[in-house]
Protein 1
Amino acid sequence: MRRRDEVLVGTTIIASLAAIIFGALYLSKASLWTSTEIRVARFRTTGGLGVGAPVNLRGVRVGRVNVIRLGEQNLVEVDLQINQDAVASGILPERPGVIAASASLFGEWEARLIDLDLPPDDANVLADLSLVIESSDDGAWPGATLPDIGELTAQASRIAGNITDISDRVTTVLDDEAVGELQQSISDFANTVQNINALAEQQRDVFGTVSQNVERTSDLLADAAMRLQLTLARVDSATSEGELSTIMANTATISTDAAAMLGDLGSIVGVVRANEATIGRLFAGADTVLAKLETGRGTAGLLLSDSALYQEATLAITELRSLIADIQANPRKYFKFSVF
Amino acid sequence: MICFRDLHKRFGEKHVLNGFSLEVPEGETTVIIGYSGSGKSVALKHVVGLLEPDHGEVEVDGHVVHDLPRAELMQLRGSVGFVFQFAALFDSMTVLENIALGLKHQGVSDREIEQRVRESLEVVDLDGAEQRFPAELSGGMRKRVGIARAIALRPRYLLYDEPTTGLDPVTSSVINALMVRTRERLGVTAIVVTHDMRSAYSVGDRIAMLFKGQVRQVGTVDQIQRTHDPIVRQFIEGQPDASGDPEVPEFEETIA
Amino acid sequence: MFDVLRSMRDMDVWVPRTVVQMRRLGVQSVPIALFIATFTGIVLALLSSYSFSGAVPLYFVGTLIGKTIMMELAPVLTGLALAGRIGANIAAELGTMRVTEQVDALETLAFNPLSFLVVPRVLAATVMVPLVVALAMAVGVTSGWITAISLLDLTTPEFLKGLRLFYEFKDIWFGLVKSASFGLGIAAIGSFKGLRTGGGAEGVGRATTEAVVISASMILVLDAFWAVILL
């Protein structure tokens, strides 16, 4: 009886202690059983990077952010704990750099290790990286920060406003004589839209850093912009009032902006796969307008009297604008599936 | 020698002991009789310090019980065996463990314990019941185990609280005989609290009648049997309401 | 209370009896504690996934289960169950011993009832309740994990990620410290109520009820107390 008591009590105590010790060690394993090495990285700014944030190499976790402190020359020093086995196996890049970027919409940031020999094609990032490289010579890894989605959408919103502006002005300069030429030009514009559609199609599969997208997008955009320029030139010659040349000049600068914007937008489109329908509808709307113009419904008089046509075009732009504003205001609505 | 001096004890409104004084001579058995709830058990519990008097004192071997420091009180308790009304055996222990418990606590060796347990059970005619649990025993057997537990300590004093209450007449006789035998064998001084006159006559050397918190009369068995005190007469003869005022108190429950 | 501490000197009296109480109060409480923990884990997993509903990533189920079970539910639910089990057991047993004069008998045998009856129980409960709670924590988290991977669309690594996300060792010891105080309180209240019993079977019933009710209230108050002091 008493013997059995002792055995039972002993067993329970041992089981419980085992549960406590095993549980405690198991749960804190990440920082307890893995030996790490410290590497220092320097940033101009660390954005939202926090202590404990993961350090990733090509998407795989290899360490964590240990300390963040303000350093000399207006730089920030970040101690990265890199797992010993990652260091030992030599998988780290020859010339490592660090990009701090948001990992999700919940404000979690991560530090991505990159190879400086294959730098990201983003002007801001490159500028930051070279700034750090120039100002430090102790082998600390240079770092740069990617803007988060809030900044991108703000830019997109501004540009969308500009586009609306143009389209308004184009509407005012169209007169009887221009219409004939316009029909031709419209078909060019249709091509442009198709290009943009193709762009969206491509972007759907691209989910990488913003900078990669920018390059490809801007090529396509340059093309599109050229066509738009052509279109507007024809319209200009048709009206021969010279008014359009002013718009042209504006368009030239705006299209540069648009190139950058659409690049950013492209990456958003990639992210927004779930909500692609809205965007599709937008482009479809534009297509309908152009199709109507192109088939002409015969004469210029018909075209001009069809006020719905212009309204629809304006509406399409407005819709784009409100979409972007909405993305900006409620990012979760659009990003919840793809981010996690 | 045990000596009660002007003992007062209240439970709430009830003045249970009201100047109780009694001397218990060495080597004799003194029986305290009285109505149920008249404070007999209360007086007994003062002897081992289970209760503290409101006024007055109990002296055992010249020491005032409630003034004793804890260690000496424990020592005193070791020399006093207490047999409870319902035996108060420890339910979770066997008869053997019940009897051995106090011995172990006194540091008696295992072999001696075994021997004393066997002896004590022999005295109460319960040889061989060592491994049984209290729940398996009859009321009379439990009381006998209670007595065995008390005498195993080889006490100098034995206090019996209603030893025959709730037992049939035959079993009562067995217990009475046992109490007599115990005194003859061990030569202890005993106080027996009872309202069973048959028992009082057969075990007592002296009888004291407790009434209204005081000793009404004390004397040898003979003296009590021939008493002229109407209250004592009424009690020992069991007549209901002869004097018109027996005042049977009713707070047995609160004391138990 | 001081008497209890003083009576701890009688080592030879309470040490052997403590093991018995450890089995009765501790080991025999394991099944009920694990039963509660199992179902708590299941419910927590389902409830949390329900309330996250897409807005919060599902792996936070692991975080929520780990934190709430270890810091609050395992200690408090087990504590409440044991307030019933242990508290009633102690109060009823000691109460019966009191009304049948067994406590008096102990005293006449020159025992200190505190060393003999109270210290083993209080000590056993203080030591064993945290250990039982530790098992409940392990089982609760495990049942939450099994529920998460079988009923929810969650993988083991995701669950572990959530579990470890904000984990600190404090989560565990906070729960265990709480549990020890619960055990101490339950046993002390049960003993006190038991030894103070008067008035026969009815008194035992009353003492038992009071012990359980007071212990349960005490657990909730202590719970808040530790949250204020330690968090």
Protein 2
Amino acid sequence: MSRFEGLLKKNLEKKLAAIDRAQSDLNELVTDLNMVIRDEADGIAELKLRTVADDVDLKVFELLISAAPQSGPKRVIETFSLPGDGYPISTGTYSRSEESVKPRLLHKFFLDDREKLEIYFSKLLSEPQSPVVAFLAYLRRQDL
Amino acid sequence: MVASTQISTLRFAWWNVADFAHFDKNRSAHARWPSSQDEYDDKCCRVDRVLTKIQSTYGPMHLIGLTEITRQAAMELKDRLFPNWDVLSVDPGGSKSELTLAVLWNKEISLSEDPPLMPSRMPAGARPMVVMDFKYELEWIRFIFCHWVAFDGEMSDKYRRWQADYLSSHAYSYLKDTDSGFRKHLVIAGDFNTEPYGLMQTYLSAHKHRKRAMDSHYRDEDVERVNLYNCAWRFTGEKWPHGEGLAKGFVDGAGTYYYREEKSWHTFDQLIVDSTLLTDRKPYLDEKNVEIIYMDEAVDRDGLPRKFDSKTHGVSDHVPLVGCLVLR
């Protein structure tokens, strides 16, 4: 029996739990936002997380918005990069070559914990300059 | 929708009309809104004179992008000068009305709006980039009109970098997606609140020489970048050589925006195209007809742009620029 037995397993489990927790926070908040769009904007648009990279120590998701049901043009609202420890989540734009996912621009800002993530998502709904609000306004113009 | 247009050239203009709000008595005390109907009417007359003169000098326009204009002012402008045109404004209107972008176009060309471009975490007052598509035969020309975050210290530079990066990312995905069967082209016009050098090159890959936009680099695909050509580099200095400008009655013309407090010209209004518009295959950019408009109607008595003020002849602190695409 190795004197190191269990250390790696424990470490990996801890890492996976952390990243899973952050990912589940993201999923939950996207679902919450979609509920608000359904209730307060007739569900005309839908947000969705698209997986860009899915590794043990880095997961990258794009938050997309499109008209509901999912059809027509989409816009990327944000790209979230989750490190092995789950938080802080960083944001920025990414490029995807065949080999890897790389940041195009240095991370704009960090979302340190669930609370910061919630503030970020609430601003997507409350600020007039939010890309979600701009997209909803576009959909409204198409109906005129 | 594919238009049935038969026009052979598409002329367009871009202009920051500076604080062109309609009269609203509830906002008449606001510095950027007209204090009276008369003041608004006066501004309308001056804007109309410039746009009328542009058309009589350069030929009828088909598409005009404007910024710092309210929805109502844009609608009224259309009704006065272009009654048969269409207009799109991203101003929410009503009590939330704001000075933002509007696009007016001749119905001879059929334009459709694609969702605007807006990075997240922008400061209050940031404007979306307006995306308008013109399709004819198997050609798809996308116009993107921009008015980026105003200069306000180093923080604002950060926001413009995000805007440039977001636009660059969009340009890449639009041009590289060939599933539609259309040949795609891109025209970006706007007030970027920054000079053509610096972040416009670094983050938008909008270069000063055409060949750079035509040649790809092995890293371009890796970082998902398209190289673009920024026509505005040619506008960064004096328009006329000494002597010629004097003969034309202009002393100075070295940019698109004149900042009176600093007595400085800036080339903040720029026109950027992708490489497909730089060959001899139509459609292409007719660059000899890309011009900054220094005409008496667009400047004050001293020959320099000035914001509208009923006591002066100013109409805007920006002058318009015009461009032309040869379609067939």
Protein 3
Amino acid sequence: MAEVVLNHVIKRFGNSLAINDLNLSIDKGELVSFLGPSGCGKTTTLRMIAGFLEPDEGDILIHEENVTRIPANKRDTALVFQNYALFPHMTIFENVAFGLKMRKVSKEETRSRVLEALSMVQLEKFGDRYPRQISGGQQQRVALARALVVNPRLLLLDEPLSNLDAKLRQEMRSEIRQLQQRLGITSIFVTHDQEEALVLSDRIVVLEQGEIRQIGRPQEVYDSPQSHFVADFVGVRNFFNGHFESHAFITNNGIKIFTDMKQKSDFKKIGIRSNMIVVNPNNKEMYINTFKVKVELITYKGTIIELLVLFPTGDSIVVEMPSEQFKQNTFSKGDQIDICWRPDSVLPLSS
Amino acid sequence: MKIKKQQNTQAYQVGSLIGPTTLLVTVMFLIPLLNFLRNSFNVFVPGQFMQTAWTLENYHKFLTDPYYLSILGRSFYIAFSATLLALVMGFPIAYFLARTKSKWKSIIIMLIVFPLLVGNIIRDVGWISLFSGTGLINRFLLDIGVVQEPIQLLQTPMAVIIAITNVVLPYMILTLHSVLERIDPALEEAAYDLGASRWTVMKSIIIPLGIPGIMAGTLFVFVLSINAYTTPLVIGGSKVQMMAPALYSQISEVSNWPLGAAMAVILIVFTLLSSTIYLRIIERMSMNVRAAGTEVKG
Amino acid sequence: MSQSYLSRIGSKLFILLIFGFITLPVFMVIWISFFKNQLIVFPPKGYSTHWYMQLADQGNFAMAFFFSLEVSLLAMIISLVLGLLSSLAITHYEFRGKQTLQTFLLSPLVVPAIITGIAIYIFLFKSENWLGFNLVPSFWSLTFAHVIITLPWTVRLISAGLQGVNRSLEEAAVDLGASKLQTFWYVIMPSIRPSLVAAGIFAFIFSFNNLEISLMLVSPRQTTLPIEILNYVFWKVDPFIAAVSTVQIIVIAGLMLIADRFVGLSKVF
């Protein structure tokens, strides 16, 4: 049974359409990410679910109850804010206890539940401190504890990790995921970071201009993005415009690329991941797609080397190769190399 | 339906929050003000108080009588001088405050704000003790032998200008400070690094970027100065009359409400007018500067 | 090198001079209040505190002081309450004509106070005939006239305070189940306490110092301290009036120190 349902939701700001006919259902215990660039409507959607915005049309159902017109303070959702929004004049304990106080929970029960929530995020010793006295990562944990202590039916996270440094972000990422799975709490996670979405989610919803572009498990979205926008967002860097002739794709400049398309299709665009391209393989006969290109730029990036290569037609693409392989296979800027990829690496995209 | 109802509750909430205040300001400020200014079109009949009318007689009287015009002219001249003085004195202080990293900064700001909070009448007591015939300044001048007789300092325009400058200077400093503080010190460092002198940095970086502050500060201070009441009354007396005390005496002593009201209108309109002209001039000047800038670039 | 050193000393000196100029009149008042002489003559014949001893005997100054205190405290409370309510509307609601209304509430700052005072007097005087009961001079009309000039300060300071409250804090409270009133009480109020204190103190000071608004609204028997001082100054300026003034200076200095504790003074203006 779906725990959260968005039914033909439309939201306008003045004359501009922020959310255009959004339909989505989320299962109980699922963690769904809203992924998209800023302004795509992901936060707007989250705020409508939380109850801070009212949709102009359509309904929002939580646990089969229509909550569209129910104010935020009467909804069984808990939001973790991007800036944590910890009350600066309250101690950590008081912050976490706030939701329980509003629900008129008794003193003793509040105490035990707050301590339990704090121990869940390993902060049981910090109850007497004020938010400014703890680190950013700890503040993040307090915000999480404050949201979870009220046992919400739905946990909403609004880019909660964007204010942390890279290392801490990875730590918190797995911590949130573990906690979410342990508690089995239905969650929505808003982010613009594709890696975050891929690692955390059960399903990813990719949004652009207030519309859903793709929904799927992380692997689905990563392996077979359906449009240029989604492909770009999950890190595909090489695109060709052209048309299909049976199972081969002919680019506008006349490059012929073989694909594993079974039947005729009218996609006008394809994408190829940089890491799916092989440089100077010993067995280049094995690849159907083999091209002679000129190396234009070599960029060292630690474990990988990034090459910008130029087709005789003038098209350029980016190729990634492992640094180890580059050491054995020396060439330099201006040299001719062979690049190859398999037909099934080609991603047909709608524009 | 629901949205309609929601709008109604919102209107109700806004109304009950801001309604009482709006009502008070309307009843105690707007209506009285309009009512008072309306009097400026009435006719003053000596001994008979006034008659309701629609006439420009009072304005005519003010604008053709050299005595009244001299009051307006003097008010402008004194306000203008005080503003200029306050700018010249305030700018270095504001700049110093904007750049200092001294731990005394908050105490310095307190020292600047404090006289402003003390009230004009009390500062005027201080000025009188300095300016009067037996005051400190005359004593000093007599002692060093510059003058043989005490000179007249009180009831001179200069004394009024100095006292008003003293009143408005804190406002000037605080306004300038808030703008100068936002100018990135790196810009100055860059200019020094490129070989600019202190004066060039001041002239080509600080002052142009400080223009909004200078405009806001001078305008604010000018309005305060031209509206001054207590200081011209106490320091200037009957010899250095300014608009605010003069119109007050029309009302309270002469009981000529229509002329007093006309003077009030003239003061308000004159202030607005000179502020607008001033803003226009500054605008044109800064546009010329910008045009010159693009020329150099092109 | 030495030239830039000299110019640095020069600019320091210039700044010091201007500071001297700013504080000069207040300093003079305090200095004179300790003169032994009857009249202000330099140099003084000696110093004493006997003018302060006489303050208690001068009933009208004490009365004016307490009358001012009463008016200013009440004006402060009223303008705080009204300022808080209006600021909540301004910062938390979107409605048509908001900008205009905001300008309107601040407009008493622009009109010369002496004109506002006269206008209020004339209006109340006329309404008196029409209503049939006494309006001027009265304690309440004086107090509300003071509210007109203190209100812009409370609206400005409290609005600024409310704008400084992070909106997501309020949303977090609502999200955790707090009602509008609970959010106000538990989250907004504690966050704006400093601006409330500052607004209150400044409302008090500006009311306490005000002379122009009060001029026409006081009665000869009940005047405010600044007017009592003004009337005395017309007659003569002597160490006694300097002592009276010094008392006011001390009261205001104390209040200013408290205000500075809560918000930096430079943020107020």
Protein 4
Amino acid sequence: MNMYSNDQVALQAGDVAVADTKHSVKMRGDKVSVFYGEKQALFDVDLDIRENQVTALIGPSGCGKSTYLRCLNRMNDTIDICRVTGKITLENEDIYDKSVDVVELRARVGMVFQKPNPFPKSIFENIAYGPRIHGIARNKTDLEEIVVSSLQKAGLYEEVKDRLDAPGTGLSGGQQQRLCIARAIAVSPDVILMDEPCSALDPIATAKIEELIDELRENYTIAIVTHSMQQAARVSQRTAFFHLGVLVEEGSTDQIFTSPKEKRTQDYITGRFG
Amino acid sequence: MTDVTAASPAAARPKGGSLYERGERTRRRHAAERRFRALGLAAVTFGILALFGLLGSILYNGTSSFWQTYVTLDIYLDPAKLDKSGNRDPEELQKLTTFSYAPLISAAMAAKMEETGIEIEGLNAKAAGEIISKEAPATLRNAVLADPSMIGKTVTFELLANGRIDGYYKDRVTMASAELDRNVSPQQLMLADALKEAGALSTRFNLAFFTAPDASDTRPEAAGLGVAILGSAYMMLIVLALSLPIGVAASIYLEEFAPQNWLTDIIEVNISNLAAVPSIVFGILGLAVFINYVGLPQSAPIVGGLVLTLMTLPTIIIATRAALKAVPPSIREAALGVGASKMQTIFHHVLPLAAPGILTGTIIGLAQALGETAPLLLIGMVAFVREFPDAPPGGLFDPAAALPVQVYNWTQRGDPAFVERASGAIIVLLVFLIVMNGIAILLRRRFERRW
Amino acid sequence: MTPGILALIVLTLTIVGYIAGRQRALARSSASGERLHSLPNYYGQSVALFIAVPAYFLLGAWLFLQPVLIESQVSAQIPNSAIPEGSVRSLVMSDVRRIADGLDIMVNKGSLAEADLAGMNTETTNIRDMLANAGVALGSDVSAPVFEAAKTYRAIGKTGSLARNILVLVAAIGFGIRAWSRIHPAMRARNLSETFIRALLMGSSLVAILTTFGIVGSLLFETLNFFGMYPASEFFFSTVWDPQFRGGSDLGIIPLLWGTFYVSLVALILAVPIGLMIAVYLSEYAGRSLRGFAKPAIEILAGIPTIVYGLFALITVGPFLRDWIAQPLGLGSSSSSVMTAGLVMGIMLIPFVSSLSDDIINAVPQSMRDGSYGLGATQSETIRRVIMPAALPGIVGAVLLAASRAIGETMIVVMGAGAAARLDLNPFEAMTTVTVKIVSQLTGDTEFASPETLVAFALGLTLFAFTLGLNVLALYIVRKYREQYE
């Protein structure tokens, strides 16, 4: 156990309190199963995402953590053969209900992807894209303000304020990812989903993003998939461990990393597999 | 003031509004989505309709060319007219033109009318004889020249009906249109109907369309594709014999041996540009170089074949290089590893594995060459050719036609019956293309490998 | 001996050489007991290659160069005084060639003895009538220098052919024997023949360059000839195209360029949006079954020869447009028109545009789509605002390629656009294009010396320059575009 004491120390700096009462459930998964054609990828997962907290989804690759994340804003809809059963709610409304419009859902549950994927447009246009399609800005001044405030919240404004017309693809990897986060923020979502947002970045850029995630927690609910346990420990308040399509264990990050209830969780976080 | 505007963007979309209710804006966005989708579907529909329209128009106009109206007549080959000396000397018979045979047909027609009791008011004997094609005397003459012993006997002939009579049974000519037509009268049509009733006139499969040579402007009923099919076949032989070896050799060099230098770059740029040069420019090349400079004959399959070879080469090279590239390096390494030379590796291992891809590309290239028209116009393939070319290799230098050029040729003629012929020829051409592409697809399916 | 028979003889020698080489290698190996370095076949192959390659190369080069050399020699023989007023040397030379050909025909037929020919001159014999009897028609009487030049032409040609035959055979046998005599077991026959084959492979790849040279050379050469007879400024800037049979033609390219441009424009206006929408729909929306049916159907459209489209324009689209649109609206009464050709060409280009756009749209990475969907964009918003702008350079390239095809297309315009050179805005009028005029000026009996014929080469060069420029630009743009996402 002592070899993980560093992590523990890091955890102490984070939010140790078990926030079950303070933080209400933002999104709730109830017996969520996912099938790709014949193959089942997720088995009856019950997992809640709590408001103003960072929930980390960890597990070995192919364990279903990304699949679950993509269910939360119905990104799986874009895959023809994918089928979801069970129930996922956002503020007690079933997001898979027939009357729910996936376009409006995604405006409230934004997503940041593994590889930074800025559009081949200017920095300004990248961020203005979301507000434009959703009609959030009433006029040009509005739009400019949204762009600036999104960039500020994403901690990118100072670096790019002189070149908002430059193409977004010209930024460095870490800047691109922060641009993508700013782009997600610009539509003022309730929840931001992050699918291994730092896996394509160097350590310095990663640190910046992690810092940013911690700041964003104040205003947004965040779910992050990561394959780095250290990262999960550093940025999250709650952690869910997936293995072979099953949610093995979920709890406060502190508890998962210090005293996991399940043997498999223990084995994974001590590096026996994965 | 700033505070208000700063707060407004977030307020624009009511936070926490129910997901179950759609806003006005969302409805508009979905309507736009549906419109866009409908636009796409309309485009696809247009494309498919265009295909059906194109093929439908050709089939509608062309299928009737595979049937032809014939008149059966018993013709007395009068020795007094055909062989005055009575010695059946082939030399003398040869000198007799088709003009001497025409009256025999008129007479036979009159006899037929008498025998079957057909009487049509206002139709004289000459006009009655004219419902037979102008090609018929030549048919008769050829039969007599082939067998002079026929003279003096009464022989049953199946003769082509005139193009207008044929058109009458294909709904191209009506009684009303015949009133206005200088080439046919309603009486002639009535005669044709009467003959049909008597069993002397029938419409049957038109084999001659595939075997007969072209015919002059006034005899669309006799025009066939024989010379054109043969000419196209000769050209395809030349294209295959030249472009396959040269194309494969060039591809092997470029793919396996060529060093990275300016010369290789120039060759590669050249090939991709040649693939996009308009076909008519190749025709100019053929005219200027092969005919004018080298002195090869006009209208000859050899020139057409050479021009089409140059046009097909880029296609074959591109396909062959793709096929060579698809052979995994592990195969090359395995062969090199047991001590084969690079040349042996390529010829013993890589080339056989790439063969299906090369063949597919070659067939597709040939199919393109078969349908190519513009360059052939410039090298004189539009000429009116009635003589079949000899067997190769000598025949490669004889004048010939080509299938697509024959189509063009027929569209330039006055008689509307040639439109039917042209469409029929297109159907023949398309059948050849379908067969070739079918073989290519089969080859690809049969030998497709996944490494 | 004709070149064909010569080639056959060389082929026979090659086979003999192969067998002989193989035998010699085996015989020498078994006599000395030495092991052969290579397989026996390679020894045969090396001899065969040494026989065939130099001989065929020599033959080919000779066939190509002989006409040039003879031409220049004979041409120099004709005095300036023998060139009639208003004519040029190349015109006289074409007469010389015709006379020489005519004499050849007569000698071959046996109607003229070689000995008689030597003593024949223009004073005693009417050459023109004599040749007319042999089936060779000449435009004017034959002057003495021209007739002498024709005789020289024949003489040099005959000597040249004899020299060619001898040299080719000597080369084949000489190289063959040399290669054969050098065979010994330790010789690296495989390496030798492989080097040879490699050179042959490289030679084949040069055919592409030769073709380009042939195209550019023949176009340039005849175009320069044309500009020698007709002022270039008139050609490029005159707005009248009116070729006359007896000289005094107006050969301005502008009406032809206008027709070409107009027809291509109509075609692109139809083909680009529809082709693009088909590509978008089939790759982003269509279900498996529709795609399975529509994709091959569109591809079939691409494989249909242009003559079929031409016929479609001539018998279906043209009359339809005339009877239902042009005549009721009083816009014209011709079934061949810019609209007819343009619409049909547009249909031809649809599959071309859609398959190119399909590749380009599929090259836009999936992450772009995910990014847009993740923000709550609808599919059409994603396509219009993210995929299209991202694919724009590639699509521009595709449109340029389609434009190059449109201006180079021949059969559809020959059969659908008409033959009247006209500068007009009414799309229901018949107009004509560069390619139509190339065909009409070069088909039929072509006399290679009048500006009316040679103008076709100037038109061809213009066409070639335009399409080449468009292609190079398009390929460059598309390549840059692909690199962006690799």
